[in-house]
User: Fold this.
Amino acid sequence: MAAGQVQRALSERLPDVAIGQALAGIERGGGITSEQREWLNEEFATRLGAQAERGATTSLADLIEIEPASAAAGPVAYYAGSIATLFLMLAAAHGALGFIDERANGLHGRMAATPADALASMLLGKFMFLTALGVVQAALVFLTAALAYHVDVFSRLPVWFVTTAAVSASLSALALALVVGCRSRPQAQTVATFALLILAAVGGSMVPRYLMPEWLQEIGRLTPNGWAVEAYALTLSGTGSGHALLAAWGVLIGFAAACLAISVAVARRTA
Assistant:
């Protein structure tokens, strides 16, 4: 109890010292980078100066006060994009499992024996179905965000649609690429679930990437869901440049094309 009272008094009377102690502990554990620490120090110094000019008493709660809900559309929009990306990844993996059942029933062997490339056409049709299903699922997530949390989606609807189509295409192609090489449905479920959960954690679908160490943030830029979350953030914030959004679209579409090509090649060999 005594330690708690001391900590409370320190937070109320010397908030800068309390903040410094907290940040030093987080920095030692690798929770923030030196650049983030420098930015936080400048931000807290600015707030301390503003409070002193008004002659108001400054506490730790004043320093870390979050913006009101009307200005918090950014975080809500970010989590809407990250949650939608995670849902699309898992749904695409589940939908791609039908490929295993079709191969077990001998359908792939019969298609591979036809003069036309029916197996590639079937994969392309499955890819298009999973992509369209992902767009519908993402629309439900963002509709909820728009109606319940006032995220500005409707004014950016055309850009949102292109982003969602690119995100859904890349994740659907990834799911197919993970599944086609598996020999059984349990193996495909294990491989797809494990790989997608790792990608979700590293790419920022579970935890914002800016809270990760720098080396992990760089790895996250190699994941399709990392680019998906970034594309949604650029789409809904309206603060990013058009070139950055076009680059994100290009990466997602290129990733989808590469994964789809790999899926067709592997499917032909295992038919």
